């Protein structure tokens, strides 16, 4: 199966080079393409990516004005034509081996998302207390306000079947970091089966997250998205796209296929 991985990047000159090197080395097959979505970068990110593109034609650069994470993802997904499409953060926190596990999981369902909050997830380096509290609070807020069953909506590694993504794109509205929540809301409303996969996630230096300020932005963006889905709910007439595999969800609200204990996760199979 052909794969398009989108990498949203805003001023990532220090981190995106090593990240691309790792992915290009580990994901050596010609069936994979990496589309770097530059979100009005004012540093040397474009030059760093161009140097990799000159050595490997699987790297494609797409330059945008400032659209936000969700904005550049939506626009770049419209350019994708692979069987599976996904995205991963430019900081390299998700190792390429974990993206390959997500791709493997997505072959049997409509999509797969990495989770840092699964009991079988591995986090070698913990985030600072302020970031951890903000993240946990946001995860709780999202579960409460939207009724989503996912413990970790914001981990920056997700994969979907292109047929499912094409159906979801016209229904997505979040152009910021709430894109992750928006796409899961729409996928759930359309009846798509999304599998949660525990991941290895390595916190990287250079994060621009500011706990206090970002908490206010998160709350405001969440309320806007909630209001949008209340006023303009996703229509659910008709079954999911026949090219995407659908399955019922588990009784507890977690997607079918999500392991319940560390001993049952996909890492054991690997």
Tell me about this structure.
There is one protein chain. This protein has one domain (3-258): Spore Coat Polysaccharide Biosynthesis Protein SpsA, Chain A (Alpha-Beta Complex). The chain is globular and about 45 Å long. It has a 7-stranded mixed beta sheet with strand order 3-2-1-4-6-5-7, with helices on both faces. The chain has 9 helices and 7 strands. It has 270 residues and is α/β, with parallel strands linked by helices. The model is unreliable at 242-270 (pLDDT under 50). Helix 1 runs parallel beside helix 2 (45-55) and helix 5 runs parallel beside helix 8 (211-231). It has helices at residues 16-26, 45-55, 68-77, 96-106, 129-146, 162-168, 179-189, 211-231, 266-269; strands at 3-9, 32-39, 59-64, 84-88, 111-115, 157-161, 194-198. Strand 1, helix 1 (16-26) and strand 2 form a beta-alpha-beta unit.
What's this entry about, in short?
39% of the residues lie in helices and 15% in strands. It is an alpha/beta fold and 270 residues long.
């Amino acid at each position: 199966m052909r794969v398009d991985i989108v990498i949203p990047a805003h001023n990532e000159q220090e981190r995106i080079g090593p990240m691309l090197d790792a992915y290009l080395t580990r994901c050596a097959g010609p069936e994979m393409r990496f589309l770097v979505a530059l979100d009005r970068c004012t540093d040397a990110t474009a030059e760093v990516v161009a140097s990799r593109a000159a050595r490997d034609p699987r790297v494609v650069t797409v330059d945008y004005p400032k659209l936000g994470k969700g904005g550049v993802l939506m626009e770049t997904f419209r350019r994708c034509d692979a069987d599976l499409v996904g995205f991963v953060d430019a900081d390299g926190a998700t190792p390429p081996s974990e993206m390959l596990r997500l791709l493997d999981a997505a072959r049997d369902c409509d999509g797969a998302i990495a989770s840092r909050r699964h009991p079988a997830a591995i986090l070698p380096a913990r985030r600072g207390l302020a970031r951890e509290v903000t993240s946990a609070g946001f995860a709780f807020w999202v579960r409460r306000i939207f009724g989503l069953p996912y413990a970790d909506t914001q981990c920056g590694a997700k994969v979907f079947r292109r047929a499912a993504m094409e159906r979801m794109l016209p229904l997505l509205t979040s152009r910021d970091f709430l894109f992750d929540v928006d796409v899961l809301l729409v996928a759930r409303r359309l009846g798509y089966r999304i599998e949660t996969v525990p991941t290895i996630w390595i916190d990287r230096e250079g994060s621009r997250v500011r706990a206090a300020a970002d908490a206010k932005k998160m709350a405001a963006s969440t309320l806007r998205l909630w209001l949008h889905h209340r006023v303009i709910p996703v229509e659910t007439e008709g079954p999911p796209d026949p090219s995407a595999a659908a399955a019922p969800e588990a009784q507890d609200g977690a997607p079918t296929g999500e392991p319940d204990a560390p001993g049952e996760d996909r890492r054991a199979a690997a």
